[in-house]
Design brief:
alpha+beta, three-stranded antiparallel β-sheet, two-stranded parallel sheet, 15 strands, 32% helix, globular
């Protein structure tokens, strides 16, 4: 991952949805964004993506705030602290999204789609039965509707969505700071919905508009979002905007090998607090998750993590191959073994001799030691 351009102060964001608790995978993404901003004197924004009103949970929002603060990830802009780019709840920004959708319609790069849910369901069924080579996708039925028909349907109050006109014959390419060059053929992308029939934006439109208006320079997120990135780049192009820099991080896997999620093996951050874990232990575990430390080194939070984090991403090597600093004396002072369930503390082997960060003894080369007690529950790809 290359250094930010000289003089650039990065602006990053963490944008959770309050549809459930903050799990450790989301916390790890927030942690890396926080560290990136702190290293370069940039800005860490917290934005709440609450456009899914059916699944919105007020208690989940409170827990997201509490989880981030417990981990020491204080945001520079966002709910409860304010900032120049508010409001920071997407549900309070719907007028902005509608305005930007109208801009795309006026420019001729988007169109209104009046297809009913029943027609779309039939289309999907027909495509499945035909086993179409390019998979499922919208057939552009409304893309070339005459202007008179559109006006007549609008006057009748017909429900509709706004779709992006995905260009034909394009290769949508971008450079990922961790994974290198990635390209998609536009034929693999259907005309995605930007604005839903209820007037709320889809994730894709809201994400791009908010990142642009909030001045986000670097998007650090899980690699499950790679497939969405070409769609976002096309939206940026439709507006005539320059996309931010993208970096897609390996996701944490559940014990069964699937992606960790709220519905699949992911514990809430606050579950660990309630179980007696210290925030320092969980925070350092998440920072080190996925590799074995070669160095046993001590430093203070957060400056001790920042150089190792940047070394990992800036090296251009695979994400999990770079050494990262450990904090034996800090953790020895902070961790209280009596507060960690013994059965959850797996044995671990360090590659370098030195004092064990959890006991008063020393660790011989390749000797056993006991780190924070989460790797028995989670593992990283």
């Amino acid at each position: 991952m290359a250094d930010p351009k000289e003089g650039m102060r990065p602006v990053v964001r963490f944008a959770p949805s309050p549809t459930g608790y903050l799990h450790v995978g989301g916390a790890r993404t927030a942690l890396f964004n926080f560290l990136f901003a702190r290293h370069a004197g940039g800005t860490f924004i917290l934005r709440i993506e609450d456009t899914d009103q059916k699944r919105y949970q007020a208690a989940a929002l409170d827990e997201i705030f509490a989880s981030l603060r417990w981990l020491g990830l204080d945001w520079d802009e966002g709910p409860e602290v304010g900032g120049p780019h508010g409001p920071y709840f997407q549900s309070q920004r719907t007028a902005l999204y509608r305005e930007h959708a109208e801009r795309l319609l006026a420019a001729g790069v988007a169109y209104r789609c009046f297809c009913s849910e029943e027609r779309l369901a039939r289309l999907r069924q027909e495509q499945e039965q035909a086993k179409m080579a390019n998979g499922l996708g919208y057939d552009r039925h409304c893309r070339a509707l005459p202007a008179g028909d559109v006006e007549r349907l609008l006057a009748a109050g017909a429900p509709h969505v706004v779709r992006l006109k995905v260009p034909d014959g394009r290769t949508v390419a971008f450079h990922d700071l961790i994974r290198g060059d990635i390209a998609y053929a536009s034929a693999e992308l259907d005309d995605l919905v930007l604005l839903k029939s209820d007037g709320f934006p889809t994730y894709h439109l809201a994400n791009v508009v908010d990142d642009r208006l909030m001045g986000v320079t670097h998007v650090l997120r899980g690699d499950e979002w790679i497939a969405s990135t070409p769609k976002h780049i096309l939206i940026y192009e439709a507006f005539g905007w320059t996309p931010p820099v993208f970096a897609h991080m390996p996701v944490i896997l559940a014990p069964d090998g699937g992606k960790l999620s709220k519905r699949r093996g992911a514990a809430s951050v606050m579950d660990y607090q309630r179980a007696g874990f210290l925030s320092e232990a969980l925070r350092n575990f998440l920072a080190l998750l996925g590799w074995a430390p070669d160095l046993i080194h001590c430093n203070d939070w957060p400056t001790g993590l920042v150089p190792a984090y940047l070394k990992t991403l800036y090296s251009g090597d695979p994400f999990f191959k770079i050494t990262i600093a450990w904090f034996p004396r800090t953790l020895k002072a902070l961790l209280r073994p009596s507060r960690i369930p013994r059965k959850e503390i797996p044995r671990h082997r360090f590659r370098q001799s030195g004092p064990c960060p959890y006991t008063s003894g020393r660790v011989a080369r390749s000797g056993p030691c006991r780190p924070p007690a989460l790797s028995s529950l989670l593992r990283a790809r």
